[in-house]
């Protein structure tokens, strides 16, 4: 799509998208700060949330690298497209379902775990696999060379890092704007159905994976 | 259909919920158990002051079975859907979850497309409720952030064993199973609510089914065998964390009203009667050094009367006990309303300082001895203030007069009927009966009221005011 830059931009874009989703963290961080009446808590809470998200994305990257050791890129792309299609369809009809979590009294460890759980259960990692394959795919088509593997590994780390940085930036900016300017009323008026958009994003990612494999 | 924007009746904080538009109608549980062969019903009462039918029953939706005994009920979803750890703001506050406390049947009632003409959309038969939840006699319904929680008074198998809480799926209304993982020595059940920001659930104790289904058992009451404890649970681990015994003489700890503002971790519990002096009492729970504590902050004494004025159940005592059966806290945590079902009074306390409540208003209606009439009723009234509901803005309070079929007959043996009244609230404290609002349900009795869009005993909030 946008040449070699495309997959990198996609990683950034998905990061911003994940960061904007109230169910992925900024709202939790904001509520903790409000509850404890300490603004610092908002910003500090975003760190473990971003780290938990990064772990989920990192695992997806690891799966891509591992997968390419055993199957070809185009098979992996088809496989990803199929998985994304199935999961996207499932989410389309179950977009409102979340993993079970009841708890507002959370420490950083809890937030890390919570974020990892939310990202994994909603398929945040799966969603970016096409982009991850784009980042590393070209050099990995025929598995084997050790040099390629380590270079691909570096690319993956960079991609996950960029994604997480974009997510953290957008989470922080959103929380800041809501906290400083709009207040919680914005939740009533402008909280669009992100869960449903998410399902469509999964389906779009399925389309991209299929297009890449074609 | 999926919603694109959040349900407009969901509010992040109690303060925002107080800006909600006034309610236009109420859903009222109407029961005919043991009086005639009519089924129970959900009645829709017009509350819109500008409407021609203000203060009348717009519609009565009869249930398909006889003998359910409707009691408490609740909404499928409320403001807790905005809680940040698992938000689903695009759920709709649309379905009423209505248990039959006697039949153990659960009705799911759809208030759309016409909110004044609700329809049954699903019936969960008693066998299924009991098989899947392990409990019987469902009671309080609360819309939780992750599921619908329902308390139940008895076990599925019979009368032995503990009552507790079970969960319903938010979306499919499937019974998911019992909520508790470790209940400790908790055995009796009744009401429950929570401090979501503290991950704490609080539950109270009434009695075992055989102690209430056929009426109050005087020997059990005098032997202090009704509930007198409060339980504090870890909401996350679903585990009993602490139990507080109010003292055996404090019989029947019923309604629980935690502060609405998630920054406050205190709440109020009402005790029906003390076997030492027939008084009723209100207690505050609060946290100190990580432990829950309770203090009695209000004592309401009995009123001495001549024996011949009393129903047989009360003759030996030569007094009317206040019998505090329900309490309700306004969304700003400022006013606590206390129903004295025996003496026929609704009391309003200013609880801005929860440890020093100040009586700020009262209205008298009904009562075992006084039977005080309403300006719009043509005869003395039986029953007294019972299930109270406060509008979200705190300006209007509604209540009904029935407690529980067999108990109504003990305390008000002269064929008590059902009525609902409205109280107007002075913003600075003080209450007065609305002389134009008196809904006469005839022989049918009425219990819990739920207001359009939510009320002061439905929604819980995860964001501070």
Q: How would you portray this structure in words?
A:
The complex is a heterodimer of chains A (214) and B (465). Chain A has 214 residues and is mainly alpha-helical. Chain A is built from nine helices and no strands. Chain A has one domain (3-213). Chain A is globular, with a radius of gyration of 18 Å. Chain A starts with 5 loop residues before the first helix and ends with a helix. Chain B has one domain (14-451): Methylamine Dehydrogenase, Chain H (7 Propeller). Chain B starts with 13 loop residues before the first helix and ends in a 14-residue tail after the last strand. Chain B has a four-stranded antiparallel β-sheet with strand order 3-2-1-30, with no helix packed on it. Chain B has a four-stranded antiparallel β-sheet with strand order 4-5-6-7. The chains are: A mainly alpha (214), B mainly beta (465). The A-B interface holds A 22-23, 27-28, 30-31, 34-35, 37, 95-106, 114, 184-185, 187-193, 195-196 and B 2-6, 8, 10-13, 16, 82-91, 144-146, 171, 196-199, 235-236, 262-263, 462-464.
């Amino acid at each position: 799509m946008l040449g070699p830059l495309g997959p990198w931009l996609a990683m950034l874009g998905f990061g911003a998208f994940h960061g904007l989703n109230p169910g992925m963290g900024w709202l939790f961080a904001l509520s903790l700060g409000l509850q404890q009446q300490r603004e610092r808590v908002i910003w500090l809470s975003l760190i473990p949330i971003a780290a938990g998200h990064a772990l989920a994305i990192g695992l997806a990257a690891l799966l891509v690298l591992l997968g390419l050791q055993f199957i070809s890129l185009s098979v992996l792309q088809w496989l990803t497209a199929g998985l994304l299609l199935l999961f996207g369809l499932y989410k389309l009809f179950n977009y409102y379902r979340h993993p079970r979590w009841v708890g507002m009294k959370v420490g950083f460890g809890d937030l890390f775990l919570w974020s990892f759980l939310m990202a994994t259960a909603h398929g945040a990692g799966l969603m970016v696999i096409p982009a991850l394959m784009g980042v590393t795919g070209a050099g990995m088509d025929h598995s084997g060379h050790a040099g390629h593997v380590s270079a691909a590994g570096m690319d993956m780390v960079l991609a996950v890092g960029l994604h997480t940085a974009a997510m953290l930036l957008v989470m922080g900016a959103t929380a800041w704007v809501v906290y400083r300017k709009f207040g919680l009323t914005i939740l009533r008026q402008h909280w669009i159905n992100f869960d449903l958009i998410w399902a469509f994003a999964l389906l779009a990612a399925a389309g991209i994976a299929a297009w890449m494999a074609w | 259909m999926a919603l694109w924007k959040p349900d407009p009746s969901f509010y992040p904080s109690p303060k925002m919920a107080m800006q909600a538009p006034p309610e236009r109608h109420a859903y009222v549980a109407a029961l005919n158990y043991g009086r005639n062969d009519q089924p129970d019903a959900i009645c829709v009462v017009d509350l819109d002051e500008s409407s021609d039918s203000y203060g009348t029953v717009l519609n009565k939706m009869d249930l398909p079975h006889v003998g359910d005994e409707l009691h408490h009920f609740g909404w499928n979803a409320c403001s807790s859907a905005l809680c940040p750890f698992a938000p689903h703001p695009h759920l709709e506050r649309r379905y009423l979850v209505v248990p039959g406390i006697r039949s153990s049947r659960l009705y799911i009632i759809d208030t759309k497309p016409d909110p004044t003409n609700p329809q049954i959309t699903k019936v969960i038969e008693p066998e299924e409720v009991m098989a899947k939840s392990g409990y019987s006699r469902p009671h309080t319904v609360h819309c939780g952030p992750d599921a619908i929680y329902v308390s139940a008074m008895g076990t599925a198998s019979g009368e032995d064993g503990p009552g507790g809480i079970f969960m319903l799926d938010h979306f499919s209304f499937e019974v998911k199973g019992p909520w508790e993982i470790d209940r400790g020595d908790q055995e009796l059940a009744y009401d429950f609510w929570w401090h979501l920001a503290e991950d704490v659930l609080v539950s109270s104790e009434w009695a075992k089914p055989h102690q209430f289904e056929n009426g109050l058992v005087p020997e059990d009451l005098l032997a202090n065998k009704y509930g007198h404890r409060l339980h504090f649970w870890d909401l996350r681990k679903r585990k009993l964390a602490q139990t507080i015994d109010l003292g055996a003489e404090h019989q029947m700890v019923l309604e629980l009203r935690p502060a609405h503002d998630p920054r406050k971790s205190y709440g109020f519990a009402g005790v029906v009667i003390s076997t030492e002096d027939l008084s009723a009492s209100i207690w505050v729970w609060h946290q100190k050094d990580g432990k829950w504590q309770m203090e009695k902050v209000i004592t309401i004494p009995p009123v001495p009367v001549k024996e011949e004025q009393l129903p047989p159940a009360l003759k030996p005592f030569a007094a009317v006990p206040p019998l505090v059966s329900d309490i309700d806290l306004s969304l700003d945590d400022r006013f606590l309303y206390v129903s004295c079902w025996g003496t026929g009074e609704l009391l309003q306390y200013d609880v801005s300082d929860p440890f020093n409540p100040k009586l700020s208003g009262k209205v008298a209606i009904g009562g075992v001895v006084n039977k005080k009439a309403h300006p719009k009723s043509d005869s003395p009234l039986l029953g007294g203030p019972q299930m109270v509901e406060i509008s979200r803005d705190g300006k209007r309070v509604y209540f009904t007069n029935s407690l529980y079929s067999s108990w109504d007959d003990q305390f008000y043996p002269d064929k008590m009927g059902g009525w609902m009244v409205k109280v107007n609230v002075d913003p600075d404290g003080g209450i007065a009966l609305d002389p134009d609002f008196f809904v006469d349900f005839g022989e049918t009795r009425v219990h819990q009221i739920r207001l359009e869009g939510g009320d002061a005993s439905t929604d819980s909030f995860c964001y501070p005011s």
